Amino acid sequence: MANTKKRIPTQHVIGFLLSLVMTLVAAWAVIGSDLPKMWVIISILILALLQAGVQLFMFMHITEESSDGGHVPWNMMFHGFALAAILVAGSLFTMSFGFDHGDMDMDDGHKQEQHSEHSE
Amino acid sequence: MSAEERTTGPLEYRTEAGRMSILGFWIFLGAEVVLFATLFATYAVLFGRTADAPHPAELFEPSMTLIMTFLLLTSSFTCGIAIHEMRRGNAKGLATWLIITLLLGLGFLGAEIYEFVHYVHEGATLPSSAYWSSFFVLAGTHGLHVTLGIGWATLLLIQLARRGLTNVTSRKFFIVSLYWHFLDVVWIFIFTGIYLIGMVI
């Protein structure tokens, strides 16, 4: 590890600041912005993925040299997240997509559309 | 198996056993991703089905959620610093930063318990509706993981005080740090998928 001797862990500080900024931007998009709902949902999901990336790459050393460049960790996380996406999107597709379950509060199609979008 | 013992690099990677343990833990984390994915899928499918209980948008408070997020995010950062100190060979720095991490974790847990109690008082209980069942199971499973992590790291701190930094203890600390960072990864998706989206829709 090249950076073992460094007093200040620069990478961690940058990662922490990035995470703080992304959390605040996501909160602002929901509370303060006038963007259309669909755009808000898409952008906060992208921010969530980026933040997960910060944790994995900058905090968890997923690709460090000592673990052979992170071949196995990278594989595990990639396949874990691929399965997660299939599970969530697949469940929504089979269970919710195009149906309103006869719910009282699901009466407009617009709402339903965003509902199926939100999980991905 | 112990044939190739390295003499350089972080202590936790020097023995074959250490490397295999860390690799095994990554496999476990892959399985944890899938565990939480099933809970997220359940939550997404049951979204909106609150029956007679309050709607989530009526109960979710941005300030409370942000406080919890910042507590956990900061604890993930301090946990990273703890491992950084460990790799500099500074056992005292490791212990100090890890204790700060655990205090932040306890703060998060306290906030979550307060939040759950508040929801229950408002009529959103576990058996009140399909939606709230899935909410409490998803957020509660994450809270349970945090609780376990606090207990686990506390036991490791006792071990550190007794044995000091060795190949074995540093491997254990590195693994608990992976676990702790992972809890923040899951929380980011709970924060976004449950709270933020719950406030939008």
From TrEMBL, chain A:
Its membrane topology is listed as: Multi-pass membrane protein
Any one GO MF term held by the record is:
cytochrome bo3 ubiquinol oxidase activity
Which InterPro entries does this one have? Cyt_c_oxidase_su4_prok, Cytochrome_c_oxidase_bac_sub4, QoxD
Q: Kind of enzyme, top EC level?
A: oxidoreductase
Record GO cellular component, one term: cytochrome o ubiquinol oxidase complex
**Chief location:** membrane
Pfam families recorded for this chain? Answer: COX4_pro
**Which controlled-vocabulary keywords does the entry list?**
Cell membrane, Membrane, Oxidoreductase, Transmembrane, Transmembrane helix
- Give TM regions: 12-32, 38-59, 80-99
Location of the protein in the cell: Cell membrane
Catalytic activity annotation = 2 a quinol + O2 = 2 a quinone + 2 H2O
- Write down the EC number: 1.10.3.-
Q: Which GO terms describe its biological process?
A: aerobic electron transport chain; ATP synthesis coupled electron transport; electron transport coupled proton transport
Q: This protein's superkingdom?
A: Bacteria
Q: Could you confirm whether the keyword Transmembrane appears in this record?
A: yes
Annotated family: Belongs to the cytochrome c oxidase bacterial subunit 4 family.
Role summary:
Catalyzes quinol oxidation with the concomitant reduction of oxygen to water.
Q: What is this protein called?
A: Quinol oxidase subunit 4
* Organism annotation: Halobacillus salinus
UniProtKB/TrEMBL annotation, chain B:
Q: Which SUPFAM superfamilies match?
A: Cytochrome c oxidase subunit III-like (SSF81452)
- Which residues are listed as membrane-spanning? 21-46, 66-83, 95-114, 134-161, 173-197
Q: Which residues constitute the signal peptide according to the record? A: none
Which membrane topology describes this protein? Answer: Multi-pass membrane protein
Checking Gene3D superfamilies in the record gives: Cytochrome c oxidase, subunit III, four-helix bundle
The GO annotation for biological process reads: aerobic electron transport chain; ATP synthesis coupled electron transport
Q: Which UniProt keywords apply?
A: Cell membrane, Membrane, Oxidoreductase, Transmembrane, Transmembrane helix
Pfam families in UniProt: COX3
Q: Name one GO cellular component term.
A: plasma membrane
Catalytic activity reported: 2 a quinol + O2 = 2 a quinone + 2 H2O
The UniProt record lists the Heme-copper oxidase subunit III family profile domain at 1-199
Q: Where in the cell is it found?
A: Cell membrane
Enzyme class at the top of the EC tree: oxidoreductase
Q: What is its main location?
A: membrane
Q: Which InterPro entries match?
A: Cyt_c/ubiquinol_Oxase_su3, Cyt_c_oxidase-like_su3, Cyt_c_oxidase_su3-like_sf, Cyt_c_oxidase_su3_a-hlx, QoxC, Ubiquinol_oxase_su3_dom
GO MF entries: cytochrome-c oxidase activity; oxidoreductase activity
Which E.C. number(s) belong to this protein? 1.10.3.-
The similarity comment for this entry is: Belongs to the cytochrome c oxidase subunit 3 family.
Q: Per its database record, what is this protein's job?
A: Catalyzes quinol oxidation with the concomitant reduction of oxygen to water.
- Which protein are we looking at? Quinol oxidase subunit 3
Source organism of the structure: Halobacillus salinus
- Gene from which this protein is expressed: qoxC
